[in-house]
Amino acid sequence: MSKTVVVMSCAHVMPSVSNERFDWLGKFLYDLRPDEFWNLGDFSEMGSLSTFDSRNPQKLATRSYEKDIKHTFDAHDRMWYWFKHYKKGMPRRVFIQGNHEYRIDRAIEHDPMLAGKDYGISTSHLGIDTYYNEYHPYDNGSPALVLDDGVCYSHFISSGAYGKALYGYNLGSKLTEKMGCSVTVGHDHRFSYSVKPETMLGPQHGLVVGCFIGDQHDWAGQANREWSRGVAIKHGYGGGSYDLEWVSLERLRKEYGNS
Q1: Which of 29, 52, 154, 257 would be 253's cystine partner, CB 3.0–4.6 Å?
Q2: What tens digit of pLDDT does each residue of 2-22 get?
Q3: DSSP class of 202
Q4: Model pTM?
Q5: How many angstroms separate the CA atoms of 226 and 179, rounded?
């Protein structure tokens, strides 16, 4: 049976940026009523646990683990508000842990005394069990690989033995070449899509779904211009194949921003 599937990655929710875009996405999802929703990770920025700004006390002073968690819950509440308000059945919801959520695990590995569901830090604080049916955490230090109806989903695909993400232009094509099947990932922030229609098992779709970031990131510089902000819709999904539709964040703003 063919399905309608929405895929999102890399929202990078952070307290300094409004969550208004999730109001737009929530209304869109309620109107579309997809069968499935896949969140490929890096939903929360978790800037409070970043090690990149350890030499910048001014940035560190403005960060808060509690604010990171509260803003993450607020984003999820906005996404699923209309389904809950009208008591409609939600789609199947799958969450694959990204490297930003994995910051919590890394912090605990570095200092086990930080761990604690009530008075410490924990991935349970992200509310994934509240908002999703399925959760796939990191596996052996890399994002989980989830095979679903002929498609391999992950936050990213590793390029070699050291677990670094496969990257580069025309990444969609590189994904199918490496994995030998249809693949859907996030992480890269740049939309990429490639189809190999000639395979014996049917077409192979290599898809990088871009990001859902709401503002410019100062650390990224010119790369901000290359990022594709939006979500992907897979129509007629089944057996590893589908018809792809891209919905940009700007399109969501124009359609739902004033409703």
Answers
A1: 257
A2: 899 999 999 999 999 999 999
A3: S
A4: 0.94
A5: 25
